[in-house]
Design brief:
By secondary structure, this protein is mainly beta. It has no helices and six strands.
């Protein structure tokens, strides 16, 4: 797996299933399944949009409603991380 720890800021890696294609000159990491990844500390769902933020609350990225199908925290092998609920 390619590692971009030095290029990206954020403690977590989020995989996004989206019909959108990264720009040809983009440095976005894409898994073998075709999902792009974003490094950020948190992701929020706001009015149907995904909003990625740093620990200090600064905006890292956003994807508009209809521009994504699923989001998940990714493990080192690009698979979704297990989720615990109470």
């Amino acid at each position: 797996m390619r590692k971009y720890f030095a290029k990206h800021q954020g403690s977590k890696r989020w995989g996004i299933r989206t019909p959108l294609e990264p720009a040809e000159e983009s440095d976005v990491y894409t898994s073998k399944a075709g999902h792009p990844f974003i490094w950020s500390d948190a992701v929020e769902l706001r009015d149907g949009a995904l909003v990625f933020r740093t620990e200090g609350g600064h905006l890292k990225a956003a994807i508009a409603p209809g521009g994504w199908d699923a989001v998940y925290e990714a493990l080192e092998d690009d698979t979704p991380a297990p989720v615990e609920s109470t």
